[in-house]
Amino acid sequence: MKRKEFLYSSLAAIPALVWGSSFAQSEPKAGEKKPFVVDAGKSRFGEVVLFLGVHPNDLKISGKDTGGQLSVFEYTGYGKTGPALHMHLSQDEIFMVTEGSYRFVVGDETHTLHAGQTIFLPRNIPHTWIQLTDKGKLIYFLQPAGKMEEFFTLMNTFKERPSQEILDKIHFEHGMKLMGPPLSL
To answer: What is the pLDDT of residues 56-90, one digit of tens each?
Structure first.
């Protein structure tokens, strides 16, 4: 009977050991990380990334800062546009509208958000948005950080729109799946 109890208690401890070890790996040790400030209109590492070649999409907090747990971006839109319908396979997103108005489509729901409002977009649900005003700003969070920083850097290198096949491949390699076209007004 004692052997059986030992086996059960050992098996019960495995999730705590696995969770504990993965948590310890992602948590920085005391004193390893330092606070930092990213100025308005600037990106964390000085990189300029423009969505569609026009709209600043500044990295404010990198996955490198958080052990891959979180990344934060600030998007400034100068036109009524937005991304294609897509879904993140392993990340949740949170958008805070700080200026202007936006229409978000998440699954079968449509929401119009104005400055001061926030929306949560769970992973594995197709979503997109479009800016409704001439100028707008969003602060958005990705949790976990995933490969979005690398995705935006790569997409910023293209001078012309890649083929759909290449876009599908790039999105998949960065944890996303394209699901349809962007919204239009």
So the answer is: 999 999 999 999 999 999 999 999 999 999 999 99
Phi, psi (rounded to 5 degrees) for 169: -65, -45
The neighbouring-strand residues paired with 105 are 110, 128
What global pTM score does this model have? Answer: 0.81
At 59, list the tokens. 């990295």
Q: Does residue 127 sit within a domain?
A: yes
- Residue 173's identity, in one-letter code, is E
- Residue 60 parent element (H or E): strand 55-61
Note the residue count of the chain: 185
Is the residue at 101 inside a domain?
yes
Does residue 60 form part of some domain? yes
Return the H-helix or E-strand segment holding 23.
Answer: helix 2-26
What pLDDT is attached to residue 67? 96
Report how many domains make up the chain. 1
32 alpha-carbon distance from chain centroid: 25
Nearest Cα neighbor of 136 from 95, 177, 174, 170 is 95
CATH number at residue 66: 2.60.120.10
Q: Give the span between the Cα atoms of 121 and 119, in whole angstroms.
A: 7
